[in-house]
Amino acid sequence: MSEFLRVERKGAVATLWIDRQAKMNTMTVAMRNEFPGIFGGLEADDAVRVVVVRGAGGKAFSAGGDVAEFLTLAPADLERWGDTLTSAERCRKPVIAAIDGFAMGAGLELAVACDFRVATRRSEFAFPEVRLGMIPGSGGTQRALRLMGMTRAKLFMMTGRRISAEQAEAWGLITQAVADAGLDTAVDALAAELAERPALALRTLKLVLDRGADAPLETALELERKAYAWLRSTHDYAEGVTAFLEKRPPGYTGR
Hints:
It is built from 11 helices and 10 strands. The protein is an alpha/beta fold. It has 2 domains: 191 residues, 2-enoyl-CoA Hydratase, Chain A, domain 1; 48 residues, Lyase 2-enoyl-coa Hydratase, Chain  A, domain 2 (Orthogonal Bundle). The radius of gyration is 19 Å and the shape is globular.
């Protein structure tokens, strides 16, 4: 792992820190190429129930990509580069982006690939790519569109304007805006709540929601029914129902 990325574990929660504070946590190509391996390792670790992504320093989650590298990359490089941030979405565990400060460009693309985005009220959000003669190229156009709707997404991305956390919350871009001093408390509470839920049901639900959102309704409903029926064959489904009937805490195993 590079000097700018590190993982800390505390109980069932793993926190991936982006720590390139001198550059507002902008991400180099080398950093981005590490994300698939990091998220894959966290997914494979049964002790990890929830992943949190944070930017160090209190000024930026990530202010984007390292612009100095942009002209060194060929089109084929950029196509592969664009898929690295999808690792957060591909991870079958819940992923929370804890945002304090700027979340812009590729930093915001990473955030919208996460399942939840909790941000301080002083945070600011932007896709400024259009001002540089480009567009978001790592999932930002499509994920933000699905979160915000077409009208707001066009206004947001085609102007490259910055918006506040309050506006981002109102537009559906983030899950929750919290007091500047309340980020740790809010993220810890959400992570603890998710960590208590049965991991097998959570990962199945994440898949059904993510895949179903882009499918025709009848296909999405069929996916839901098949996933529900499959869960019926698992220990956790039977344990959840039995524990409820016996009025005791369930003992989920992830099987």
